[in-house]
Structure formats: C-alpha cells, structure tokens
C-alpha cells in the first residue's frame, strides 16, 4: 500500500509541480531529507491530492490560501505555478488573493500579490 501510495503521489506531484521541480527536489535529497521527501510524496501527494472529493483547481485554491495565511512565500511561489498548471487563470488567482486579503490580512495578501505577479510574469515570458 505504501509503495502504491508513493507511486500515485509521485505521478500527481509531477503533474501538479512539473518534472523540472520534482527532479530538482529529488536531486537535492540527502540521507537527512529522504524520509521527509518520501513522507510528502506518500501523504500530501499520494493520499490527499489523489482523493476524489475535490478537483485539483479547488485544491490549488485552498493551498494558495493556506500558504498566504501562514506566510510561506517560497511555497506560494511554487504553488502559483502549480495553480496555473491545474488550470487557474491569473484572474482566478487574483480573486483567491483578494479573498485572502479579507480573511488572512492585507499585509499577507500584499506579499502574496508581489510573489504571484512575479511568478505569473515568469510564466508569461516562458510561453
């Protein structure tokens, strides 16, 4: 079961974050971090992101909100890219961040808008 969960998790992780990101994470894995990498692949990606209850777009909206609320801007950067990969438009990401301004605070949303704008510009340049 754990091996299957890892396999499914890696499939979803690659689909959501992209091969390049996952490959970089795998390359940076050390004996110290390998258990953590396995854990997030099995549980976050293989157990939660594979559930039928929510689609990936909705999961991305929730993830963006949680990252804004907790001030995890580096993870937010990664998940803005993931949200686009999951089909969210820049307009929808903006709406999520506006919602965050009310419920997570204006300073948190202000920082999130700066990160998202930078990431969206990078994505546009890459296209």
UniProtKB/TrEMBL annotation:
Domain (Carboxymuconolactone decarboxylase-like) ranges: 35-118
Matches recorded under SUPFAM superfamilies: AhpD-like
One Pfam family linked to the record: CMD
Keywords: Lyase
Protein name according to UniProt: 4-carboxymuconolactone decarboxylase
Family matches, as InterPro entries: 4CMD/NDH-1_regulator, AhpD-like, CMD-like, Decarb_PcaC
This enzyme's EC code(s): 4.1.1.44
Database matches in Gene3D superfamilies: AhpD-like
Cross-referenced PANTHER family: 4-CARBOXYMUCONOLACTONE DECARBOXYLASE FAMILY PROTEIN, CARBOXYMUCONOLACTONE DECARBOXYLASE-LIKE DOMAIN-CONTAINING PROTEIN
């Amino acid at each position: 079961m754990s091996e299957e969960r890892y396999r499914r998790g890696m499939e979803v992780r690659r689909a959501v974050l992209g091969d390049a990101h996952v490959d970089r994470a795998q390359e940076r894995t050390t004996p110290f971090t390998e258990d953590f990498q396995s854990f997030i692949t099995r549980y976050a990606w293989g157990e939660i992101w594979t559930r039928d209850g929510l689609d990936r777009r909705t999961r991305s909206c929730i993830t963006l909100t949680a990252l804004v609320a907790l001030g995890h801007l580096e993870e937010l950067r990664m998940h803005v890219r993931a949200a686009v990969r999951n089909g969210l438009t820049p307009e929808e990401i903006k709406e999520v961040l506006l919602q965050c301004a009310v419920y997570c605070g204006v300073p948190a949303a202000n920082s999130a808008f700066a990160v998202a704008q930078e990431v969206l510009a990078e994505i546009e340049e890459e296209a």
